[in-house]
Amino acid sequence: MQAHELLSRIAHLSLQHGRARAASTAAVMVGLVVLLAVTRSARRPVVGAAAVAVPVTAVIGGAVWAAYRPLPNQIPLTGYIWIWLAVGILVFAAALLLRKPGVRRAGVIAVAAAAAAAAAVGQVNAEVGVFPTVGSLVGHRPPTSVQPVSFGDVPGFEDAVQSGTPLDSAWTRPVRTPGSGVVTEVEIPGTESGFAARPAVLYLPPAYLTSPRAVLPVLVMIAGQPGRPQDWFSSGRLGSTVDAYAARHDGLAPVVVVIDALGSQDANPLCLDSALGNAATYVARDVPAWIETSLQVSHDPAQWAIGGFSYGGTCSIQLAVNYPRIFPTFLDFLGQDEPSLGDHAGTVAATFGGDEHAFAAVNPADVLKTRQFPELTGVFVAGAADDEYRPQQQRMFAAARAAGLNVRYYELPGGHEGATWSAALEREMDWTGRQLGLTS
């Protein structure tokens, strides 16, 4: 085994589970036995050390409470017992050293006390998880690993929450906050629309999984066509991208709900309410209603955004223009200049029976010609090598800017592919966090 591989394995050793906890318990016991063995009259200093450790532990508890208030106590009762034991060991060792033992005995006392106290502190760390691995002791954090869970295992509504704008200025991260977020699947019913959607995929950041919980913004995302919500987590790398953002911001990130706006792999309802189904009502009514009643998130529209790639990108500008009070922020990655089944006439025929006026009433390019939307903010991203969709994005950007939207446009290397839209999401996370009130 090469040296760097060995160091990597050591850095990833857990300090919270299994062998680590057993080893620290054994170290405490061995240290205590050694300390008791080096003195014949240990009863008095043991009792004294135990007594002195009580107020010291109380002071530590008060300091922790003061640092995190109004959050609840961050250290469980068993943690305070380990703190008391660590303090007691150090006081006991100090009492033994004050008796001026020989150099060899003093060395044994110092080493045994330091090892036992450190092991006891390690037990506290195992309970609160400040340093999850050996590497984290020196600042090394392993790559984030988003864990899949059942939606039934997601924590319910919390009475204690933290909120503010920007949220990071009011947020105090609880000690027991998980190191990474989770991904879960859930069915969002088409209660009003009647739209039969496949299960959505949710990313819940660490700040959602703790108590008190941060009141987080919402990012609704849509995949391409053909496609499914899971595409955002495979080719789009959404889980690792948003989790990395959360790691940089004390566990804060948007709650991301990747919905199905197709109905099946090859369906194409164009995010419209038309003969092809009520996809627009599903995305703009059913989805927000479910989120607000099922997830503890911000209800402020200023903290909601919609985004997607290809078909999902087209949907994002459609929904923003037609429902600006619900989705005032959008991310259009590699989208089209209008919803399309391949050609304009065929699309209008399939959706509205050939009624051009009905199509124009909801087609974003047409709506932008007749209304101003200074309240909308968004970004258009195209692939530099995407000769089909890049010109369409340029046209949509020009139309949006003419209608008063606060918009940006840029191109990334690549074509109409996952590498392009995943890079766009990674690049836009900081902007999205600022726009949705996470950071200043």
From TrEMBL:
Entry keyword annotation includes ATP-binding: no
Keywords: Membrane, Transmembrane, Transmembrane helix
Pfam families: Esterase
Keyword Transmembrane: yes
Transmembrane segments: 20-39, 46-68, 80-98, 105-124
Protein name according to UniProt: Putative esterase
SUPFAM superfamilies associated with the record: alpha/beta-Hydrolases
Alphabetized GO MF terms: acyltransferase activity, transferring groups other than amino-acyl groups
Domain of life per record: Bacteria
